[in-house]
Ig-like domain-containing protein (Nocardioides szechwanensis), 128 residues
Amino acid sequence: MASTRLLVRIGALALVATTLTAGPVSNAQPAAKAEVKFTIALAPDGSKVVGKVKSARAGCKKNVQVGLFWKDVGSKKFIFVADDNSNRLGKYAILGPGRSDIPPGRYYVRTHTSEKCKASRSATIRVS
């Protein structure tokens, strides 16, 4: 009887020691990256492209670098032309080249991926 109790105690100590050295078992998945969406429009005076970055995660919409891409009429590919950082509300405004009106063509904006936010691209708008 005494030897049975001794074996039970040794087994319990071995179990505790194994748990302490192995550490807790975690089945936690890394947090999913937040979705990011955009609005994009030409300002009424035609001098800038404006819009808003939208996301459920605040860090994915404030102070986010937004890149503007342009495709000239008749061109085959978009090129990067300018960027801006969104404000605390997610709003951005990108001025035309040389502070003049936005030239004709097609435009979209995008952001890069970050640790907590997915990369995203807006719809394409046409400026004539």
About this structure: Residues 2-22 form the longest helix (21 residues).
